[in-house]
Amino acid sequence: MSDDVLLVERVPVNEDDPEVGVVVVATINRPDKLNALNQAVMGAIKAFCADVEQDPSVRCIVFTGASPGPAPEGKRQKPNAFVAGADISEFQGLGSNEIRPIFEDNGWEAIWRLSLPTIAMVDGFALGGGCEVAVSCDLRVASDRSRFGTPEINLGLIPGGGGTQRLARLIGHGRTMEMVYTGEMIDAHEAFRIGLVNHVTAPEALRDRTMALARSIGSKSSHTLRVAKATVRAALETSLSEGVRVEADAFANLFDTEDKEIGVNAFLSREPAVWKHR
Ligand code: COA
Prior knowledge:
CATH architecture of the largest domain: Alpha-Beta Complex
Distance between the termini: 33 Å
Largest sheet: 6 strands, mixed
CATH class of the largest domain: Alpha Beta
CATH topology of the largest domain: 2-enoyl-CoA Hydratase, Chain A, domain 1
Strand order of the largest sheet: 1-2-3-5-7-10
Structural class: alpha/beta
Order of helices and strands: EEHEEHHEEHEEHHEHEHHHH
Bound molecules: coenzyme A
Number of strands: 10
Radius of gyration: 20 Å
Shape: globular
């Protein structure tokens, strides 16, 4: 097992055509601590996001957590986790002056601001800051043994990684209030029912299901994907009339791109599109 707190793997979108680019899988790697987000992990996530944004071969980014592996002799087996939250051991004794700068410039915002599509691949606990990593991604695929929650209330806290805001926009005010007030976990099926996750699979099928989704997304024009993300995001950040104006503008601008011409011609000639931005 590597000591790196964030493992980065590049998977071709299309094995037969390396030109198409890669899906990058970023694995948070502290399985002994259920992948809790300490400052080293947060620093690695921020650096990774800055790097990946500069890499023209990247089409889609998958965030996940490392599996625990078998327990050493005589030790209890650690459970599977996506991320069990911010590292609580780093909270002890801190005051607002210390925590504020750490939480102002954080990994959740770095993930949220990525211009390319992001998917959280969740196998196990996604709690607190882990639930917030998942909701900072565009989509979520979860194994059926996963559990989601915002247990910060039990620490005398509230979510601090954008969770109150992004959860409320994703699953609604009432459901967010219940999660934040009670700190209780919900299972993957309930998370699916309320729209917190897009797909639920058996643990053995999780990676294939997620990568199929990432490859499907990654096969599109990367320029058009970026425009799509920024435009849908406007729905969360502006009024309806302003958002519709943003969409009309983005839609019209795409008519000046080669990829629009390539896509339309490909449809009409019944050929697969070979994007300029691929
Ligand atoms: N921060 C720091 N360490 C954490 C952690 C966190 N958020 N979540 C788990 N760990 C550590 C535990 O301290 C333990 O370390 P140890 O083996 O060195 O003692 C290890 O991960 C395994 O966790 P453990 O609690 O023994 O597993 P469990 O199966 O009994 O319980 C959970 C699993 C997820 C229910 C429990 O770990 C938990 O409640 N974690 C905290 C969740 C939380 O409040 N997150 C919000 C943080 S703001």
